[in-house]
Specification:
The strands form four sheets. The chain has a ten-stranded mixed beta sheet with strand order 1-13-14-15-17-16-20-21-22-23, with helices on both faces. Strands 2-3-4-6-5-9-10-11-12 form a nine-stranded mixed beta sheet, sandwiched between helices. The protein is an alpha/beta fold. The protein contains 23 helices and 23 strands.
């Protein structure tokens, strides 16, 4: 074997296996140099992002003239429109005014509008008293807060603006205030915090192929329509400001709506170079599909506004890096200068954490007073906030219980149903569909098929009474090594080697799961391995603001921004593992078994590599569409999904590409983790079954639902049918 060295040359590495202890299959406790291996996944995405950002910087550095920057603006706007996708037609807002509160110097109209049919947005319109002429107005999206604009710190800014003569429309983002999507009446609150309210259904939007930001952006655009519908508002003097997630919405909405004359995003603008090195990507709506891969970054939001008045509001200890904010300010400043309005880009900075400050508020008031032609005193004043009861918009305090309307999940469900219908139509013509899937899926999953494999590093052998364990490191697709443990029976040996990929890692596979040792007892050599973020290679330091049920969505978002996927990276590494085994001509054939979520990665790898004769998926979820269509799904499935795949394929299509080789699907799981009834599973996997029949290998496809106790027996029977 290319990677194995004769026993007599390696006696210094021999260690006997104690009969009573667990098997040691770890490698990185020996190879100290690779101490950062648990961060391999996230740092791979970082390396990809940094390369893309460097290329972008080279492009921007070549911009010198007004014409250069105007061409850049047109190109950036085109790319952002392509990324976000088309918006729906404007439909009636169906504005309902549910109450009015009169306060000293202003009134508040509580209202509900429909940004899309049945998709209710709760809002409050703050109107200064004694207006004679139409007044300037501010659209105010709210940052991540369960109370939304009802929270004292938000009211402080809103009421100060109103007392200075501005009309303010503040509205609840989806998942906040009275728009909780996962509201539990028994708890009296959502089962999730606000950023999880965004990202749990937001991930389903990404699976469908688009960013949930489209819902947030459209809510704001329709909010501008609400303002324009009011006779009190001067439509030529509209500004927009929001902090944190509201800063995100401000930056994004300004790209798509030219009615915003002056904009002041607060505690959001930085750049991805600094963000990836610190807090990491944020929750779902802050990530636009392939944004970095398309040569875009935060300063593009600002430069795109040139020469319109824009104020960047920042704090020095924000998790949105102040260094990145200053770098974006200076880059965008080149655009404003080239367009002859350098003074229209301003920046205010205060020394604080991610929060409002008096200094920054007063700078923002002065900015809007100047550019919306509403002069006055910018001094920040103490205010008396309204009570929660005074600002309750809906009868029950929640849209979900007052109107039973649409949610992000229900709207996306319609998108997915349409995608599945089209996918099923294409499946009717197998001869056309499967070649197209084979051509498209590597690009969609971000797979670069390995051509160079490097050399394995032999790392020791443990010898026991029944089997020996040889340890190896092989180069991965990123700047990391993959840990392998080759388990070899000491007596009878099959000519077949089995690769086992367990979602809990190789240590769990050999010491807890049981299947590995049963295969060894039957004479099969078994290769155990960890993949990025699995076993020894995870989970690393990054949790992020969307760490839902022990899963970091933020790592997955890093792939979305860069046009790469966790599935694609792991599939490349599986191909590397197969190459490791294939180089040993001693084995007549290779079988591969996944246990848990890694069935997705294994199918991607083996739809490319033809060097595996038998494939078995144990307790794999059924497909991406199933996850996107289920209101409740297991969060651990997310890392093993490919954003945008269901436009072209799903796991049953990859399963069909395994033919004519042997494929067994054992105990498939529903999106919520339950074992699927065999009749339901048969329906869901009817397409690959048909593909195997068409190739004349009907018996090579097997779908079984058994008890866990019987599962090992099913695998052994599948491996040795005789």
């Amino acid at each position: 074997m290319k990677y194995r060295i004769f026993w007599q040359l390696l006696c210094s590495l021999f260690i006997s296996l104690p009969a009573t202890c667990q098997d040691d299959v770890d490698l990185f406790n020996y190879w100290s140099y690779y101490s950062d291996v648990e961060n391999s996944l996230y740092k791979y995405f970082c390396d990809v992002a940094f390369d893309q950002l460097d290329q972008r910087k080279q492009t921007v550095n070549r911009l010198k003239t007004r014409e250069d920057w105007e061409r850049r603006q047109q190109e950036v706007k085109r790319r952002m429109k392509d990324i976000v996708g088309s918006f729906p037609d404007k439909t009636p807002l169906n504005i309902q005014v549910t109450g009015t509160v009169q306060k000293n110097g202003f009134s508040v109209e509580k209202l509900v509008y429909e940004s899309r049919p049945g998709y209710h947005v709760t809002a409050a319109l703050f109107i200064p008293e004694n207006l004679v002429d139409p007044a300037p107005a501010i659209l105010n999206p709210i940052g991540h807060s369960t109370l939304s604009f009802r929270r004292d710190i938000y009211q402080h800014t809103i009421i100060n603006l109103v007392k200075k003569g501005f009309i303010v429309l503040a509205y609840d983002p989806i998942g906040q205030g009275e728009r909780l999507q996962y509201y539990d009446p028994a708890l009296g609150k959502s089962i999730f915090p606000s950023n999880h309210e965004h990202s749990y259904p937001g991930a389903q939007c990404f699976i469908s192929g688009y960013s949930p930001a489209s819902y947030f952006i459209w809510d704001g655009i329709r909010g501008l329509d609400v303002l324009e519908s009011r006779p009190e508002v001067d439509p030529q003097r509209i500004g927009m400001t929001g902090i944190s997630g509201g800063g995100t919405s401000t930056a994004q909405i300004c790209v798509f709506d030219d009615r915003i004359l002056a904009a002041a995003p607060e505690c959001y603008i930085t750049n991805y170079n600094r963000l990836f090195r610190s807090e990491g990507p944020q929750d779902a709506e802050q990530n636009l599909v392939r944004f970095i891969a398309e040569g875009l970054d935060h300063p593009d939001f600002i430069a795109l506004r040139a020469p319109k008045p824009t104020l960047i509001v920042s704090t020095t200890r924000d998790f949105f890096s102040i260094q990145g904010a200053m770098e974006s300010y200076h880059e965008a400043g080149e655009a404003f200068a080239a367009l002859g309005e350098a003074e229209n880009l301003q920046m205010t900075i205060d020394d604080d954490r991610h929060s409002f400050t008096k200094k920054n508020r007063e700078a923002m008031y002065a900015f809007f007073q100047k550019h919306l032609q509403n002069p006055g005193d910018p001094t920040d004043q103490e205010i008396e906030p309204l009570s929660l009861e005074e600002l309750q918009v809906t009868p029950t305090g929640q849209v979900s219980t007052s109107f039973q309307g649409e949610t992000m999940y229900s709207l996306n469900k319609k998108v997915v149903e349409n995608q599945v219908e089209k996918l099923n139509a294409r499946r009717r013509n197998i001869a056309e569909h499967l070649p197209q899937v084979r051509r498209l899926f590597p690009k969609i999953a971000g797979i670069t098929v390995p051509e160079e494999f490097g050399s394995a590093v032999f790392s020791g052998r443990f010898v026991g009474a029944e089997y020996a364990i040889e340890k190896y490191l092989i180069p991965g697709s990123g700047a990391y090594m993959l840990p392998l443990a080759l388990c070899i029976p000491t007596e009878k040996q099959s000519s077949e080697v089995v690769l086992i990929l367990h979602q809990q890692g190789k240590d769990y596979a050999i010491n807890e799961d049981g299947l590995t040792k049963e295969l060894l007892a039957q004479g099969f050599t078994v290769l155990l391995a960890d993949l990025p973020d699995i076993g020894e290679m995870g989970p690393g330091y990054l949790r992020g603001d969307t760490f839902i049920r022990n899963v970091s969505y933020n790592k997955w978002f890093a792939g979305i921004l860069t046009g790469k996927t966790i599935v694609g990276l792991r599939a490349e590494d599986i191909i590397r593992m197969i190459n490791f085994l294939h180089s040993d001509r001693k084995y007549e054939s290779i079988a591969a078994i996944s246990i848990g979520t890694l069935g997705s990665e294994l199918l991607h790898a083996l739809a490319i590599s033809q060097d595996v004769a038998k494939v078995c998926l144990i307790e794999s979820f059924q497909g991406y569409a199933d996850i996107a269509l289920s209101q409740e799904y297991r969060t651990e499935y997310i890392h093993s999904t490919v954003p945008g795949a269901i436009e072209a394929y799903d796991l049953p299509d990859l399963a069909a590409l395994i033919a004519p080789r042997k494929l067994m699907i054992l105990n498939p799981l529903s999106a919520n983790g339950d074992t699927v009834d065999e009749s339901v599973a048969s329906k869901n996997f009817a397409f690959p079954s048909k593909a195997f029949v068409q190739q004349g290998v009907k018996d090579n496809f097997s779908l079984r639902v058994t008890s866990r106790e019987e599962a090992s027996g099913s695998v052994l029977a599948w491996l040795s049918p005789e």
